[in-house]
Design a protein that fits this description.
Layout: E1 4-5, E2 10-15, H1 19-28, E3 36-39, H2 78-84, H3 88-94, H4 101-113, E4 118-119, E5 126-130, E6 133-137, E7 141-150, E8 155-156, E9 170-172, H5 176-179, E10 187-191, H6 195-204, E11 214-218, H7 231-234, H8 239-246, H9 250-259, H10 261-264, H11 269-285, E12 291-295, E13 298-306, E14 309-316, E15 322-327, E16 329-332, E17 336-337, E18 353-354, E19 357-358, E20 376-378, H12 383-386, H13 396-408, H14 426-441
Parallel strand pairs: 1-7, 2-3, 2-7, 3-4, 7-20, 9-16, 10-11, 10-16, 11-12
Antiparallel strand pairs: 5-6, 6-7, 8-17, 13-14, 14-15, 18-19
The structure holds flavin-adenine dinucleotide (FAD).
The site of flavin-adenine dinucleotide has 31 residues, from helix 1.
Length: 442
């Protein structure tokens, strides 16, 4: 096939335009001397369209937008979007406890319109090396670039027993609104006790007309537990903590990730309250037919088909017992995991791996045997090395600022950490405060 070399060589090519690379593109708008292009296979920006439920809200404050954390006067901030749309005062008056995800999607789409460096409908099919440059190829096009930034997001995780059956009525939550199954009179099972499971459960029981015959919400967790959003827990979402975490031994990091599960994967307390009240209302006030069950401490371990229905085997995690459940529709809210993008296949042998992941340097570049001075940076691919903040929106602009500083080889952004409230690292206390710090501790 003949490829056309579309443009002059770039300094940065970004693969994927989700919030992570969109933040990078937004910050780079102020630095046109760094030539960049971003590609996404989708025809247009859509933020997790299959889960854009009407009432779903952001799990971070809106100040954690594309730019504000490192560049609060940037004209691609959420506040600027509100002002340009002439809704700033109404937004203030509305006093949303959390911004609707649909509104943040509007904001992201508006930001896309302001950026000339984005190319939608352009899947990157292969990445290779040509001389001292990286080559990125799509269908009939090719770009050369000094550096690459992977922002390809995470892929749906599905329990092994459900994988052979995936389709319209045995679906991962990412497909929930895409399949849009009729639910009236159906037996629906929701698997997964995190935020997505809660949002889907709430959606299934929201409309009193056309209720399912039954909705059963199953989770491996020992209860339907809230997200810990307290101030000290939110310190886990700071540059200081993520840098501290990065320097810990691997076994400690693994232990901490499991200990911190509810700081990242819990359900927002407001949503849990709303679900509880709705179940109460349906059961005691509206008296609507329909069986609503919540079953914690159950793991989905088997799926078979009997006639038109699914037969699910659930292992009780606290008793040595199994339950069998029939369902017409099963929604697997079983999370996401990072996987190496397929387009890296031509250079996969040149990339150092650690388990399933990359070996990530402090500037978010990965270790690989590429041309001298050419780096591959990763977004949302280093949870095991950077902690629970990595796949979250909270530190995205800070991570992008690190990447920009690294590419520019000078500090275009001041990302020095503020003095921490929590001194995670004993060494930092001893070095920074010297004898005074030791005196205070004794
Ligand atoms: C429903 C949902 C709600 C969430 N809400 C929050 C929240 O409120 N707060 C929070 O902090 N976090 C939230 N998260 C977690 C996280 O912030 C989001 O998943 C976020 O979208 C991650 O951004 P990303 O840019 O890394 O990846 P994605 O948004 O997944 O974007 C990746 C993009 O890469 C493209 N792509 C992949 N491969 C290629 C290729 N070869 N060529 C071209 N394009 C490619 C895809 O088409 C996609 O558009 C949420 C996650 C989900 C699933």
């Amino acid at each position: 096939m003949q490829y056309s070399l579309t443009d002059a060589p770039m300094d940065i090519v970004g693969i994927g335009i989700g919030p992570a690379n969109l933040s990078l593109a937004a910050l780079l708008k102020r630095h046109p001397q760094i030539r960049s292009r971003f590609f996404d296979r989708r025809a247009e920006f859509q933020w997790h369209a299959g889960l854009m439920l009407p009432n779903a809200s952001l799990q971070v404050p809106f100040l954690k937008d594309l730019v504000s954390l490192v560049d609060p006067t940037n004209d691609l901030s959420f506040l600027q979007f509100l002002a340009v749309q002439k809704r700033l005062l109404c937004f203030i008056n509305a006093s949303f406890p959390q911004v609707l995800r649909r509104e943040f999607n509007q904001y992201y789409r508006w930001a896309c319109e302001q950026l000339s460096t984005l190319r939608f409908g352009s899947e990157v099919q292969a990445v290779d090396v040509d001389g001292d440059m990286i080559v990125v190829q799509g269908d009939g096009w090719r770009h050369t670039t000094r550096h690459l930034v992977l922002g390809t997001g995470q892929q749906p995780s599905v329990p092994d027993c459900a994988k052979p059956w995936l389709g319209e009525t045995m679906l991962h939550a990412s497909q929930y609104l895409i399949h849009n199954n009729p639910i009236e009179g159906k037996r629906v099972v929701v698997v997964g006790g995190g935020q997505t499971g809660a949002e889907v459960f709430q959606h299934l029981i929201a409309d009193s007309d056309g209720m399912p015959a039954s909705v059963t919400w199953v989770t491996r967790r020992s209860n339907f537990a809230p997200l810990d959003e307290s101030s000290f827990t939110n310190e886990l979402y700071t540059p200081g903590y993520t840098n501290y975490f990065y320097d810990l031994p691997e076994a400690r990091r693994t232990m901490l990730l499991s200990e911190q599960k509810l700081a990242s994967d819990g359900v927002s307390a407001a949503l849990l309250g709303a679900i509880y009240r709705r179940v109460y209302e349906l059961r005691y006030v509206a008296g609507l037919p329909g069986d609503l069950q919540m079953r914690p401490a159950r793991e989905l371990v088997g799926v078979t088909r009997r006639g038109d229905c699914w037969v699910l085997t659930l292992q009780h995690t606290q008793r040595d017992m199994q339950e069998v459940l029939e369902a017409d529709i099963v929604v697997l809210c079983t999370g996401y995991a990072y996987g190496m993008p397929k387009c890296l296949a031509p250079i996969a042998g040149r990339i150092d791996r650690q388990g399933d992941g990359f070996v990530v340097n402090p500037d978010y570049s990965i270790r690989w045997d590429g041309p001298r001075g050419s780096r591959i940076y990763v977004q949302n691919a280093a949870k095991d090395q950077r902690g629970i903040a990595d796949p979250n929106l909270g530190l995205v602009p800070w991570r992008c600022a690190q990447i920009i500083n690294s590419v520019a080889e000078r500090a275009l952004y001041d990302i020095d950490e503020p003095a921490p409230f929590i001194h995670w690292d004993t060494q930092a206390v001893a070095v920074q405060n010297g004898a005074q710090g030791m005196e205070f501790m004794s």
